[in-house]
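User: D-alanine--D-alanine ligase, Kineococcus aurantiacus:
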Amino acid sequence: MNDVSVAVLAGGLSHERDVSLRSGRRVAEALRSSGFDVSVLDADAHLLPRLAADRPDVVWPVLHGAIGEDGALRDVLEVLGVPYVGSGPAACRLAWDKPIAQALVQAAGIAVPPSLALPQATFRDLGAQPVLAAAADWAGFPLVVKPSRGGSALGVAVVGDTRDLARAVVDAFAYGDTAVVQRFVPGTEVAVSVVEVAGELHVLPAVEVVADGGAYDYAARYTAGATEFFAPARLSPAVAERVAGAARRVHGTLGLRHLSRVDFIVPASGDPVFLEANAAPGMTETSLLPQAAAAAGIALDVLYRGIVESALR
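Assistant: Predicted structure for D-alanine--D-alanine ligase:
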C-alpha cells in the first residue's frame, strides 16, 4: 500500500473553510506517516482538472459545510469513478438535513428532541411574532435554535427567554433558509465516532464534552482550552454500551460509510437522545474523532490507513 496516492480535499468556500484546512493538514500528516503519497487539494475551479491530470488512487474529502457534506461533491467523484473515503451522496444528504435525519433515526427507535423546522417563508406568510410565540409556548425555555443544515455549531444558540428568540432565529437564517426550534434536553453531551476498518464497523469510545461557557459553540470547538473533554466519557458501562449501540444504529440507518460521528445528549435516564450525525467529522487537534481514537489506544496513522484501505475495497 505504500505506493498508493491519496488526494486530501480541504478548504472550499463554506463558513467552515478554516476548520477544513486544519482538518486536512492533520489527516495528510497522519497518512504520510503511514507511508502514503499524499497531496492536499482545495475544492475550487482547479480541482477537477488536477484530478484528471494526476489521478489519485483514492480521494479523502475533509470538507466541512455544504460542499463537503451535502452530497454534491460525492456525486461528482462518483461520475469521475474515483474511489473516495466517506459516505455516498444519498447518505450525506440524509445526515446533512437535521430534520430528515432526526425523523429517520426516530423511526429506528432512538429518541430525538421534539423539534419544529421553520422555513423563512413560514415567518413571511404567518407573521414572525405569532410563529415565535407559538414555538416558545410549545417548546418552553430554555430551547435550542439552529440552522437545519450546517456544522461546527455555526448559528446555534441556547435561548433562555422570548427576548432572545427572534435574534437567534435571524442568526440561524444566516446559514440557511430553515431554522430548527428544539426543546432543550439536559444531560451529558457525548460524541461517538464510528469507523470502518477491514470491512468491519468499530464504535470508538464516546467522548464527553463540557464547554467552559456552557455551550459547545464554534469558539468552544476550535479554541484549545475552551472545552474540557473526557475520553472515554464518564458513563457507566451499561450506559456506554447503550450509547455505542445507538451510534451504530444511526450509522446504519442513514447509510453512512467508512467514518461518521454521532452526537447525543444522555439524560439522567441513560437513554441517549440523538442530536445529529456528521458524515465528514472534524479532524483538527481539538476534534472528537481523533480523541476517541486516542482513548481506544489506536494511532491515527494506523486508523486512517485502515479507512483508506476500506475505501479502496
